[in-house]
Amino acid sequence: MRLQRPNLSFAALVLASTMAFGLAGHFAAEAVIHQQQAHQVNELTEVVLRRSEFAVDFAAASLDDLARRNLASCDPSALQATRLHVYQRSAIKDVRLVKPDGSVICSAYSETLEFDKGWVDRRDMLPSHDKALSLFRVEQFGGDALGVLRDVDDSSALVAIVGINASLFDIMPAELRAHSEVMLALSSGEKLGAFQTDAGRPLVEPVNFDRSSARFPLHATIRLERAVLSSWNNEAYWRILAVALGLGAIFGILLARSRRMEGPVADLDRALAAGEFKPYYQPIFDLRTGQIKGCEILARWLRRDGSVVPPMNFIPLAESSGRIQAMTWQILESALAELRPLLRADRSFKMSLNVVPRHLLSAGFVEALRRKVLTARVSARQIVVEITERDELDDLARAASVVAELRDHGFRVAIDDVGVGHNGLSRLKGLGADMIKIDKFFVDTITVDASTTTIVEMLVALARDLHMTVIAEGIETEEQLRALVTSGVEEGQGYLVAPPLPLAKFNELVERRGVALSDAAAAASTALVA
Fold it and tell me: What sequence ranges are listed for the domain EAL (predicted)?
């Protein structure tokens, strides 16, 4: 009996600790799931807002192009050129020349005026962050459209009539579609468009998720039935509860380990000192020919025991701890040394380096980059600086100045993660970059979502207007490749050709692809002679 008392006390303590952690786990699971659900729906609301901003940016860029070509006129030849411009941009239904008060002078497609229920006065139009750009609702018999007004001079302005396609808002997961409504409105409350599978059915106890644009007077809302939302994506409850129960048993160990908060950062410092961060190379290729035209440098942590740590396990910590700059320079120096023979043999080959905004805007960045490239005896024109959008570029003017300085020295500049990062298209234009990289999110959905194809085509058209190159990221299937080619994208990267590779395998791939292209060219030449 004396032996049983300690055992009973131990069991009671473990049981009490497990129950306490289990109860805490229950509340934590509910809180985490609720937070995750809200976060996911808020992200969907943000997607609606971003798509709408893309449409406005696209319309504004089109109006800028017309004004730049002196087509803000009712002259027959100007109207003919404007009609061709509208025909080539399916998202725009019409372009109209208006007076300062907003009244219509003439229209590229005058017959569209017959579909207007009314036309607002300039005083009722809503200004954007760009004071020369205003938005308003155009009431039409076939459904409302969005008017985008751009001032040309003191006596006239151009207006693009942008069609609001309800399919652009069809973004809800299958299990939520029948119990939700997605809406876009102006900040004045005027509704522009909505998507609901059963438009006549009222939602039961709806919960609203709202997002407002910081650049345009646009407001996106997703309404969801509360009961459906609470049961959506709650599979994590039992996993969280199991973790909580486990934590109750090993609380002492976790407490001891929690006192070593400096451990992961110290590991990064040791790895930097030992030169354990190595470059891997993912090829960038021509979508039509398959020719490898360059590569993107991606960091991998090669530990002494031979294991490879993926970037998601150390890049966020490197950024938050301030080690990302040293890591970036270490990766670049290794890549320049390894790829120097290839870069010197093929002067058209490009090597892309990821740089976070904080590093780009740091003192001496441009000079440090020039010094490292000159030391490696590589041409600056072969180096592409990719600005990642994990952090927002708070000082756009300063960033544009750094980009201009880089380009003056011969470097190319690309904007990464376009479409899902912090910068809108108008800010991309302000940076003056050479390239934009379409995020994998759009590539994943381009074969299954018609609205994605529209967005990609808009990005390609805008890039061409700005004389920028478009590169698609994350291409995994031939079907995606064909859809991107059809949309006008010329270059890309992804697992369809190769994942990020160490130097030896990358060189082998480049050589194998080069031989294959040479053989194909020779075969074609022989066929022509025959």
Answer: 261-514
Distance, CA of 227 to CA of 175 (rounded, Å): 12
Determine the pLDDT at residue 67.
Answer: 92
Report how many helices (DSSP H) and strands (DSSP E) the chain contains, helices first.
17, 19
**Res. 529: pLDDT tops 70:** no
Residue-level pLDDT at 172: 85
Q: Edge-to-edge, what's the strand order for the sheet holding 157-163?
A: 104-107, 92-98, 157-163, 145-151, 133-138, 126-127
* CB distance 286 to 293 below 8 Å: yes
Q: What is the mean pLDDT of the chain?
A: 84
What pLDDT, in 10s, does the model give residues 375-393? Answer: 999 999 999 999 876 556 6
Q: Where are the domains of the chain?
A: 20-251, 272-518
pLDDT at residue number 256 = 38
Query: One-letter amino acid identity for 384?
Result: V
Q: Is the pLDDT of residue 519 over 50?
A: yes
What's the CATH code, domain 272-518? Answer: 3.20.20.450
Q: What is the pLDDT of residues 65-104, one digit of tens each?
A: 999 999 999 999 999 999 999 988 888 999 999 998 999 9
Confidence of residue 14 (pLDDT cuts 50, 70, 90): low
Residue 58 · residue 425 · CB < 8 Å:
yes
Cα 99 from Cα 316, distance rounded (Å): 52
Would you state the pLDDT for residue 131? 82
pTM of the entire structure? 0.56
pLDDT digit string, tens, across residues 119-129: 889 899 999 98
Structure tokens at 435: 């390239």
Q: What DSSP line would sit under 24-76, residue for residue?
A: HHHHHHHHHHHHHHHHHHHHHHHHHHHHHHHHHHHHHHHHHHHHHTT--S--H
The C-alpha atoms of residue 176 and residue 178 are separated, in whole angstroms, by: 6
Return contacts of 373-381, CB within 8 angstroms, 24+ apart. Answer: 373/336, 376/333, 376/336, 376/337, 376/340, 377/340, 377/344, 378/336, 378/340, 378/343, 378/344, 379/343, 379/347, 379/410, 380/409, 380/410, 380/411, 381/347, 381/410, 381/411, 381/412
| Tokens read off for 362 | 């740091």
pLDDT over 90 for what percent of the chain?
47
Using H for helix, E for strand and C for coil, what is the string for 168-192?
HHCCCCHHHHCCEEEEEEECCCCEE
CA count, 13 A, side-chain hemisphere, 316: 3
Residues 6+ apart with CB under 8 A from 168: 48, 51, 52, 55, 193, 451, 454
